[in-house]
Design goal:
mainly alpha
């Protein structure tokens, strides 16, 4: 029952955050993580059913591998554009390499926000 409540809350969060799927990197990351949560809820339930019915650990391990790859792909979706912005900054501003900025700051500077 608690799992269904968590799934419902995560689905509502995803629906609220759908308009932030692109644009600001921070909001996009929140969107991707929120999107992954209901997928994880369903996957954990399926893994539990698989472990219960088979008595083996492989359903849980399979779901863990799938969830890890889902989170890594989400991470890559966020980092790839930020790294591209960081490279553009290095070309535009050679002194940028001397300073250590976070990707979010580099992204904001690239868009002229700072």
């Amino acid at each position: 029952m608690l799992g269904l409540l968590a799934l419902a809350a995560n689905v509502v969060s995803v629906l609220i955050l759908m308009r932030f799927r692109s644009g600001d990197a921070n909001l996009e990351y929140v969107w991707l993580c929120s999107r992954n949560d209901p997928i994880g809820n369903v996957a954990v339930v399926l893994a539990a059913i698989g472990v219960f019915t088979t008595g083996a650990a492989w359903p849980d391990l399979a779901v863990a591998a799938i969830m890890a790859s889902l989170f890594l792909s989400s991470y890559y979706e966020i980092v790839k554009p930020l790294r591209k912005n960081d490279r553009t900054l290095e070309i535009d501003n050679p002194s940028h390499g001397e300073n250590k900025f976070s990707p979010a700051i580099c992204s904001a500077r690239h868009r002229g926000l700072q």
